[in-house]
Amino acid sequence: MHELSLSSAIVDTVLRHAEGRRVNSVEMRIGRLRQVVPDSLTFYFEIVSRDTLAEGAGLQLQLVDGLMRCSSCANEWDPAPPPAEDEEQVMVLPQFRCPKCSEPGAEVLRGEEFEVESIIVDDVPAPAGAKS
């Protein structure tokens, strides 16, 4: 349910940067290690953006795979690889210990992103009285 608060933060950020213009589209980069459910985020984004200049804006999500590096042997791996297209969408526990040497304490190189990559807005400000 944390997707509700995340969606609120996205809308707040987007509206602040839209500077009074209608928002048409929002592109996000979200790391798979953030444990965000994409469908829930999209659902709550639609609810939170109602009656704002972001209402009806599309939300495009680019999911970023995780990548970790072992501090002992420098091995790199994805701790929670997404299932192959022909596999069921089963929740897999992430592997944070190095699969090569079993040492803990790996460094996260990628997969924790939660970034508004871009927004597309109208060229002209919204009419006076429009809710932001």
Report the mean per-residue pLDDT as an integer.
90
Count the E strands.
6
**Distance N to C terminus:** 24 Å
* Assigned CATH architecture: 2-Layer Sandwich
Please state how the strands of the largest beta sheet are arranged side by side: 2-1-6
The helix-strand sequence is HEHEEEEE
Report the biggest beta sheet as strand number plus sense, adding barrel if it closes: 3 strands, mixed
Structural class: alpha+beta
CATH class: Alpha Beta
The poorly predicted ranges are none
Strand content: 25-35%
* Tally of separate domains: 1
**Integer-rounded radius of gyration:** 18 Å
CATH topology: hypothetical protein PF0899 fold
Helix residue percentage:
10-25%
User: What oligomeric state is this?
Assistant: single chain
Total of helices: 2
**Overall 3D form:** elongated
Describe this structure as you would to a colleague.
The chain is of the alpha+beta class and 132 residues long. It is 21% helix and 30% strand. It has 2 helices and 6 strands. It is elongated and about 60 Å long. The model has no long low-confidence stretch (mean pLDDT 90).
Notable characteristics:
alpha+beta; hypothetical protein PF0899 fold; single chain; elongated
In brief:
Helix content is 21%, strand content 30%. The chain is α+β, with helices and mostly antiparallel strands and 132 residues long. The protein has a single domain, classed as hypothetical protein PF0899 fold.
Helix and strand arrangement:
Layout (H helix, E strand, L loop, with lengths): L1 H17 L2 E11 L6 H11 L9 E7 L2 E3 L6 E2 L29 E4 L3 E12 L7
Parallel strand pairs: 1-2
Antiparallel strand pairs: 1-6, 3-4, 3-5
Helix pairs in contact: 1-2
